[in-house]
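In this section we walk through a basic example: taking a raw amino acid sequence and producing a predicted 3D structure, encoded as discrete structure tokens. The instruction is simple. Fold the sequence below.
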Amino acid sequence: MRKKAVATYFLALLIPLILGSQTTTAKETDCEVFFSPKGDCTAIILKEIHRAKTSIFVMAYSFTSASIAKALLDAKKRDVKVEVVIDQSRDTEKYSETRFFKNMGIPIYVDSQEPIQHNKVMIIDGETVITGSFNFTRAAEEKNAENLLVIKSEDLARLYFENWVKHRNHSSGESKGSHVSSTLTHAANKQ
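The resulting token sequence is shown next.
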């Protein structure tokens, strides 16, 4: 299910509540809203990743979607800078994405500063923010009731990127997990 709206000052009013004391002066923000299950959220994310020209910065709690992982790898191959920050709980799980990204040469950082790093964010080319409750997983697309926002705003992208940098800077650059994500690697290689 897809809804599209142009928010002028609405998001500017909500941002201080969401991000604390940080504010934005975005005059107009284009925002698309999607819902799952089966709302094509993954397809929308893939479309935005394929459009990327310079950078994709990801902050994720759970990341097991082979198609999104493959799209990020393809972006890296197009010389798009791709970096990922994940929650510490994902680092040692059986199907951890940390090994996949590390093996593919994508820098991955494990955030153990907070009890849970629960963000689901992509900042693309400094102008697009993908966020919402949607984890980058098959279950989020096919089973769960989730939401996804695609926001076109350099002002908001800057705020999200500043927050991403904060989390990257206090994260570990090395994965502690020893499990190779064979399921994710195999699925991504098949696509």
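Looking at the output, two observations stand out. The mean pLDDT is 78. Strands lie at 2-7, 29-36, 55-60, 81-87, 108-111, 120-124, 128-132, 146-152. In the next section we compare this with other chains.
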